[in-house]
Structures are given as structure tokens and as C-alpha cells.
């Protein structure tokens, strides 16, 4: 597996990875209405993702020329996305991306990283040294989601 920077040509594959993964993996923890709110299958819903993934540091895991995961670190040291392809869960993909994002944050002078995550990914981050700062609800119309703000000191 290779970790590399996101390029604009990767956008459609990243969006499809996100949709497929949310529908299959997060579907274990959420209702179908929640999943539809999180990952609509309309590509126009993702029209600002190209800018979002380019403005921030977005890293991709690639194996055999296929993207197997992606993660995004903002300039403030917040992890915005971290997803492993539905067929690459528990293979080390997410951990490799997270380690690369944490190294990027350290290299940029950050002393900690934060992430806002839901029920599905909370154990992943807990097992990698993150602690819960707050628990709250967010609305993705019309659904409410529990979200955990977590941090890790680097």
C-alpha cells in the first residue's frame, strides 16, 4: 500500500468510496434514513468536495492502482475525513492513513489533533489513543446524529 496526496483526477473514485463505505459499513449502526442523509447517491451533493479535498491535506491509500482509503487534515489540525473502502476494513488502511495525517500535523507544528466522529468510527479512534472531549448531536437534515469530538496529543 502506498500513501500519496489527493489529485483532482481522484475525486470521483473518492466520492464513490465514501458512498459505498457509508452505505455498507455505517449501515450497521444507522437507519436507512440516516444513511441517506449522510451519503446521498446524487453526485451533485458532492460538488464542493473537490475544493474541500484540495484546500486541506488529503491523503490517499492506494493498492494496485485503486484507492483503498482517504483522510483529510485541515490547517487547524482537525481530521475532517477518514474512510477505508468497505472491502478494506481491518486491513491497516485506516491506521496507515491516520499515522500519515498525524505525522503531517506534527510536521506542521501541531501538538494535538482533533476529530469529530460518529458511532461507527469512535472505537477506531479510541484504540489509537484518542479521548472523547464532548458528545453532542448534529443535524444533517432531517436526521440527528450523535457525534464525538475527540483529541490526541502528538
UniProtKB/TrEMBL annotation:
Which terms in the Gene Ontology molecular function aspect does this entry carry? acyltransferase activity, transferring groups other than amino-acyl groups
Q: Which domain of life is it from?
A: Bacteria
Where in this chain does the entry annotate a coiled-coil region? none
Residues annotated as domain N-acetyltransferase: 1-154
What protein is this chain from?
N-acetyltransferase domain-containing protein
